[in-house]
Amino acid sequence: MIKVDRAIIDKTKKLEDASVEAIEKGLEAGHIAIPQNIKRDIDRPCAIGRGLATKINANIGLSLEASSIDLELKKMDVAIAAGADTIMDLSTGPLHEKMRKRIISDCAVPLGTVPVYELACDGKNKFASLKEDDFVDVLQKQAEEGVDFFTIHSGITLEAVRLVEKNPRIMNIVSRGGAFLASWMMINGKENPFYSRFDEILDIAKKYNIVLSLGDSLRPGAIADATDELQLQELVVLGSLQQRAFDKGVQIIIEGPGHVPMDQIESNVRLQKTICHGAPFYVLGPLVTDAAPGYDHIVGAIGGAIAAWHGADFLCYVTPAEHLRLPDIEDVRQGVMASKIAAHAADIVKGIPSALQRDINISKARAKRDWEKQFQFSLDKELPKRVREGSPSRETDVCTMCSEYCSIKILEENLEKRKKEKSS
Amino acid sequence: MIKVDRAIIDKTKKLEDASVEAIEKGLEAGHIAIPQNIKRDIDRPCAIGRGLATKINANIGLSLEASSIDLELKKMDVAIAAGADTIMDLSTGPLHEKMRKRIISDCAVPLGTVPVYELACDGKNKFASLKEDDFVDVLQKQAEEGVDFFTIHSGITLEAVRLVEKNPRIMNIVSRGGAFLASWMMINGKENPFYSRFDEILDIAKKYNIVLSLGDSLRPGAIADATDELQLQELVVLGSLQQRAFDKGVQIIIEGPGHVPMDQIESNVRLQKTICHGAPFYVLGPLVTDAAPGYDHIVGAIGGAIAAWHGADFLCYVTPAEHLRLPDIEDVRQGVMASKIAAHAADIVKGIPSALQRDINISKARAKRDWEKQFQFSLDKELPKRVREGSPSRETDVCTMCSEYCSIKILEENLEKRKKEKSS
Lengths: 424, 424
What we know:
The structure is a homodimer. By secondary structure, chain A is of the alpha/beta class. Helices cover 51% and strands 9% of the residues of chain A. In chain A, α14 (296-309) links the parallel β9 (281-284) and β10. Chain A has 2 domains: 6-351, TIM Barrel (Alpha-Beta Barrel), CATH 3.20.20.540; 355-423, no CATH class. Chain A is built from 19 helices and 10 strands. At the A-B interface, α9, α14, α15, α16 and α18 of A face α9, α14, α15, α16 and α18 of B.
């Protein structure tokens, strides 16, 4: 039975239309997760899962070639200000521990990591010689530091690695953690420690109330690879692990594809929900084409909106820098906004009452040409104001697209005239 | 029976996987349209409709508060370079005739207009006193000038105006042409001349081989207004007009919504295809939320991708300036790219062979870390190159996101090692 402190649920409730009772029931059933390490106090915790508004995550972090902690924390601030519900620190490189310490202290929302990255920070050769214990120890270490959720690549097994070696794909493994683990397994001829030692991992997660986000090492990295044997074999493993976690009272999220053509997204969501017993689904995109580098935030917004509409609960943002470079601050902002739009469009059709209400409010303001109110109900309250102010119209109530030929205004004038005629 | 010169079909064929015979059959059935005025020679004509790659249109044009013809022609160039298949000149203001002359001479792709805007250029009061003949005459004039397709708001009738007066909507009429016509009808108490004189309009279109794009004056302008009585009443009228046009051998396209929540898009497309006898469907977005001004190109990409997947043939771009101001050059580029992504993602699932092949090609290049080939197969060949060059990696074959921890490279190295071990 999964239980989370009532005080934390109350805090998440601010974001939701759902009742505390509905959230508690969702937690108990394993359909909702609330990541919050017992060591951390989070200003803005959030609940993720069935019946709730779709949440979005922004990844930041140092890389081997970018080592300004301040810059990454600035990206965190920008992401949260733009609406990110959670942050993941994907840092690699020599300063990753210092970075994690800073972000655990500063981050106002739930913080996730991919602990295998810490193990990889000493280089590929050292990674190959790691012992199984090392994989468990790093989780214990980061749990004690206060991380709220871990991506753990428990689903890739020796059996899957044998399938990968047959290499039937265009892009074999595009998950960084997955590639590290597959390599370790190939070199050492041993089972994935995140799979073989899963019970110990559950004990750590249980102790610290850490949500385990089970990573999809074998997600498709190309449209032509989507929904293939490798992906589904891993999903089945993840479903059995979810059940084991649930039985131990550990909160689970399942990660999902990846590159998926539009017409396979709904079935991907339904499969995940069935195989993983209704656990929250955290999708990476999905990207509906491989061919738009520089615009992958838009590609991910298309896929994310469709996925969330059909039941995905948590969208990992994709920035315009995806496939090209580490994102900069503007990329982060654009990525969060695109995901926010996808989540909101989905929430309207998921039946989240406040989502449709926002659209009704902004449209009523638009009908009245009340610009301040329009900005107030916009997903981004600042940008539309700047855009409009950059092109002022002679008539203050309309915009420079139509000016005095504003359809709304023309009709309004005539309707009012008609009303007067009729009443006189 | 609709027939188009074989030479023109051959020219459009360059864009298509479909055979000339399939295009001819589609034309005959009214399921495909090829806009090209007999007075014009078009460098890059295109065919729009069933079985073909999804096409996209970019709107440009002077407004009452923007009167640089050169700037608008620059927007046209940017739009076509980014991949617009057609251009619409929506100019209003005193220079509209000069503008149209220039664009008819310069535009390398099919050119559309909304002729009622010309009638509106002399102001609202003068518009109210127009005679029915004026509405037909302006079509004759622009036909003779060489315009390839007209948006004609024939579907809004006196009956609809009576429904509008009951005003059950948040946003009553958001079509500029529709608002002008509704006002004219209210003031004059007469039927819409584009409806009452439809036979004469067909004669003009037939003579010049102009495609009539039947406008949807009553498209929803707010999510809460979608798929309502007004919209469907007009669609039924459009279906009957399409039949009359088809019987006279005139090519027709039907325009569609508008602001539509995601879960109503498929049914909107299916309704249009049924009611309008398979005529090409030209969607304006659709926008899946009202609440993201400043990002409506992304909102439109989500809706456009879903619409095209389910059979919409032609996407009108939406720029980031929508609802805020007249778009600038960068807005135009962003709008075309977002529509291009939506169209391409849809073409993959529509089964257009070259669409999926592009994704396979870029992903194969990505697997090999062949950057030049990746750029070559990208929908935007320039931007990704600039983005990558702005963040050079120490190792030339990877990117700064993962650097030497590139999953593809790690796995490739290990798979090669395994292969060698096995063969030795």
